[in-house]
Amino acid sequence: MKVLIVGSGGREHAIAMSVAKSSRVDKIYCAPGNAGIGQIAECVAIGAMEFDKLAAFAKENAVDLTIIGMDDPLVGGIVDVFEAEGLRVFGPNKAAAILEGSKAFSKDLMKKYHIPTAAYETFDDPEKAIAYLKTAKMPIVLKADGLALGKGVLICSTLAEAEAGVKEIMMDKKFGSAGNHMVIEEFMTGREVSVLSYVDGKTIKIMSSAQDHKRAKDGDQGLNTGGMGTFSPSPFYTKEVDDFCRKYVFQATVDAMAKEGRPFKGIIFFGLMLTPDGPKVLEYNARFGDPEAQVVLPRMKNDIIDVMEACIDGKLDQIDLQFEDNAAVCVVLASDGYPVSYQKGFEIRGLENFEGKDGYYCFHAGSKLDDSGKIVTNGGRVLGITAKGADLKEARANAYKATGWIDFDNKYMRHDIGKAIDEA
């Protein structure tokens, strides 16, 4: 069969690598893709938000399945466009993707259906938001309602910081229209855990847990990024936590969406905080996390096509989802200066060192082929270096060893990804 993947990051590279392992697939396209994806798929120069062009391409090339990797096209309704054309597509439709597209919607959903989450209020008037903050307990969390590339969340320690945050989000529109509405949320403490799941509208199958590192610098210092590294599984995601979440969070969310007339088919990413009062939902995403996909998918035993088609057909209950009994760690190699400003166009050296090395992966996030045929940096997050190991400590050691196989000017990374493992 022929498969089209929509997106251009490390997540889409991880998806493409999983798709390439399927015995059912003989041709992979990716739009727009990147230099790494181009080594296993044919990259197509169509943007992820060009829905009609993508649908036309899928029809013209007799694509059997399209996989939407990114949040923007999902929230924008790409699945609806494909389905209207009679095309087979994996991902939630626009009505269901609002679970990620609007933080206010998802918070209201959790309140209505008693899914544990932080206390909150929503605002569309900055003056009312500031008035509320004057009565609120600090620290406090401000969230732009819409999509903001994982960066539209501010943790404010003082009232002055919070007032400046409201100005940044709602008045200066730092995150564009995502800041037209805002959620103000109580600050929760505890371990963060990411749990990915497959959903077919009624049945949910949980993938292996993971933990992301959002801050740019060691010791969780610096600005929020799209993710500087991750590990899987999380030693803090215990059987007790899993039992609680399956009962009160995971299935409850799927059932809530169905009751709202928004049945969800695709991936639900649960961002959890393990608080002293029990697990609570920090956020939902409507697709694979990035870089979480880069440590979860390499450990999945199933044929990804079988699982995705079961989601589309409402037959996920027939899938026995299985993961390897090991661990994986991903360290992101970024351009120094990310996420603020950075230079691009530097040659990436050492990619050949990953060839034929089982259990080691180099997922491209921001790379491209230049006019001379060299692979060069083309983004803030450039590569996700992932390695597996018998346990998390071995996987972490292997991943950091592998970061030394790659070099490019302006290379930057955190040196403490997975350090929390030592505390488990």
List the helices and strands and how they pair.
Blueprint: E1 2-7, H1 10-20, E2 27-32, E3 42-43, H2 51-60, E4 65-68, H3 71-76, H4 78-84, E5 89-90, H5 94-101, H6 103-112, E6 120-123, H7 126-133, E7 140-144, E8 153-156, H8 159-171, E9 182-186, E10 191-200, E11 204-212, E12 215-217, E13 221-224, E14 229-232, H9 239-259, E15 265-275, E16 278-285, H10 293-296, H11 304-313, E17 327-335, E18 360-364, E19 367-369, E20 375-377, E21 381-389, H12 392-403, E22 411-412
Parallel strand pairs: 1-2, 1-4, 2-3, 4-5
Antiparallel strand pairs: 6-9, 7-8, 7-9, 10-11, 10-15, 11-14, 12-13, 14-17, 15-16, 17-21, 17-22, 18-21, 19-20
Helix pairs in contact: 7-8
Would you give an account of this structure?
With 424 residues, the protein is an alpha+beta fold. The protein is 28% helix and 28% strand. It is built from twelve helices and 22 strands. Strands 10, 11, 14, 15, 16, 17, 18, 21 and 22 form a nine-stranded antiparallel β-sheet that branches. Helix 7 runs antiparallel to helix 8 (159-171). It starts with a strand and ends in a 12-residue tail after the last strand.
User: Would you count the extended β strands for me?
Assistant: 22
Specify the overall morphology.
Answer: globular
> pLDDT below 50 for ≥5 consecutive residues: which ranges?
none
**Relative helix content:** 25-40%
N- and C-termini, Cα separation = 44 Å
Radius of gyration: 21 Å
By DSSP (H or I, 4+ residues per run), the number of helices equals: 12
